[in-house]
Design goal:
Blueprint: H1 3-32, H2 38-59, H3 62-68, H4 74-96, H5 99-106, H6 111-127, H7 129-137, H8 141-164, H9 170-191, H10 201-235, H11 238-270, H12 277-304, H13 306-314, H14 322-329, H15 332-347, H16 351-375, H17 378-404, H18 410-432, H19 440-462, H20 465-472
Helix pairs in contact: 1-8, 1-11, 2-4, 2-6, 2-10, 2-11, 3-7, 3-10, 4-6, 4-10, 5-6, 6-9, 7-9, 8-9, 10-11, 10-16, 11-12, 11-14, 11-15, 12-14, 12-15, 12-18, 12-19, 13-14, 13-19, 14-17, 15-17, 16-17, 18-19
């Protein structure tokens, strides 16, 4: 099977999985947002920051390293699986006792019992890393995505039932734990792995160089991407954090719908072309062109219709998220393109450059977040965050184009010119047309149709319709 066919197959199953999961997530969130209060969501948003951190620790860069290293034998992977089992158990125990310092930091005792429940979640997320990576390494995209859809359905049902029964924020916490457990169980059964309880250092040494840089990047990236939530929860209020978190999550939906369909497929396929940098560059530029063509006009639409989107999805009690989402929507296209860059560094086996990019991104983002927190409003934090995204877009593409591909910015510039024209068409139209005096839902339907029409017109005017035909024809 050729590279284009592998991409088509991988993206097809990834699209089914991601789109299904986004629909499930939207439906579940729409229901829960009308049952749970912003303050209850704020409690979960705080603890999720720490949960993500421990998930990152449990991965330890092992997942991408297994995908990249094709020489690992089954016995060696079993040994790595055994190591991940011990690591997950250790991290789960640590998380059990983490509730005390979290409660002290946020002055809220609810985090003590919550940490006990989520310790189980940490353990399951830790031990599913190797089985999931094995499935991706073998390009079994259909299995990974269909199982993930099933787990999200189960998690959604559990969370809604528990919320109706009055379990408050525990409805979200328990459902997440159930999801992690189900994912591990099915992935484990599908891979036939057997954890070696006697750890062999040799396999770990084989992946250490790659996984070390990957882990350090994840570690640095975690703090730069989650510091805003940590500090808002500490210095503002649980409700402010909930409003910010909800806006930020909605701004990530385009990534989940588009970029996250492509990114998981890139490394498993492109790792076969590790030495062919011209091939990797051409794929990156094509992906950038596609994402910019969709992302730039979409960012314009989201900015102009932020109020309708938030109020329709979550209800009137979430009006405090509207302005923050409007600001973050400006960076949607940048986030989409940046989300694919990590897999490009990985495919070229240059996690050293990935780490450097992460360090530079962290410096910029952390500085921006502190300025936003000092300014005293979640809207200012959002504004500084999108400025950080813009700077990081430049430095990441510098490392890719100049350091990795020995090229320059002109190729990236060419990829963005036509998408910018398409976005400008959207801006002009939505500036002229006023908001209709109808419900948020009807406004979204009407303007959504208008967006699609303008998008097609933009494709024709700029000649990007040719790009659509190339994608369809697997070129």
């Amino acid at each position: 099977m050729g590279m284009a066919d592998e991409f088509k197959k991988g993206i097809f199953y990834s699209a089914i999985g991601k789109y299904s999961n986004v629909v499930i997530q939207l439906l579940v969130t729409a229901v829960l947002s009308r049952i749970l209060t912003p303050a209850e969501y704020g409690v979960v948003a705080v603890v999720n920051v720490f949960l993500i951190f421990f998930q990152m620790l449990a991965d330890f860069g092992i997942g991408p390293a297994i995908i990249q290293n094709k020489s690992l034998e089954k016995e060696e992977i079993n040994s790595i699986f055994g190591f991940s089992l011990y690591l997950a158990l250790f991290l789960g125990i640590v998380f059990m006792f983490l509730g005390q310092p979290i409660s002290a930091f946020y002055n809220n005792v609810v985090y003590k019992p919550i940490s006990m429940v989520l310790a189980i979640c940490v353990f399951f997320y830790g031990i599913l890393v190797v089985p999931q990576s094995m499935l991706l390494r073998d390009k079994k995209f259909s299995t990974v995505n269909m199982v993930t859809v099933l787990a999200n359905i189960v998690s959604g049902i559990v969370s809604i039932v528990l919320a109706i029964k009055g379990f408050s924020y525990y409805s979200l916490i328990i459902s997440n734990t159930a999801k992690a457990g189900l994912l591990f169980l099915v992935f484990y059964l599908k891979t036939n792995l057997k954890a070696s309880l006697k750890i062999d250092k040799a396999p770990l040494k084989k992946i250490f160089s790659f996984s070390k840089n990957q882990f350090l990047f994840n570690f640095i990236n975690y703090f730069s991407r989650n510091l805003d939530s940590l500090l808002i929860g500490r210095y503002f209020s649980a409700s402010s954090l909930a409003f910010y978190d909800k806006a930020y999550q909605v701004s990530l939906y385009p990534n989940q719908i588009l970029t996250n369909v492509i990114s998981p497929v890139i490394q498993p396929i492109m790792s076969d072309y590790e030495k062919n940098l011209d091939k990797i560059k051409s794929v990156y530029l094509k992906i950038t062109t596609i994402l910019a063509t969709i992302g730039l006009p979409l960012s314009v639409f989201l900015v102009f219709h932020s109020s309708d989107i938030i109020l329709f999805l979550f209800g009137d009690q979430w009006g405090g998220s509207v302005v923050t989402f409007q600001i973050l929507a400006l960076s949607v296209w940048i986030q989409m393109i940046l989300s694919s860059t990590g897999a490009i560094f990985q495919s070229a086996n240059r996690t050293d450059l990935l780490l450097l990019s992460g360090v530079l991104s962290a410096v910029v983002t952390v500085t921006a977040i502190f300025i936003g927190i000092w300014a005293g409003k979640i809207e200012y934090v959002a504004l500084m965050v999108i400025m950080a995204f813009a700077v990081n877009f430049i430095q990441t593409n510098y490392l890719l184009m100049y350091r990795l591909f020995q090229s320059n910015f002109s190729e990236i510039g060419k990829a963005l010119v036509k998408p910018v024209i398409m976005a400008f068409i959207q801006i002009v139209f939505f500036l002229i047309i006023p908001r209709l005096p109808v419900s948020s839902f009807l406004n979204l339907i009407i303007n959504g149709i208008v967006f699609v029409i303008l998008f097609v017109i933009g494709l024709v005017i700029t000649g990007q319709m040719k790009l659509v035909r190339e994608v369809i024809k697997k070129k």
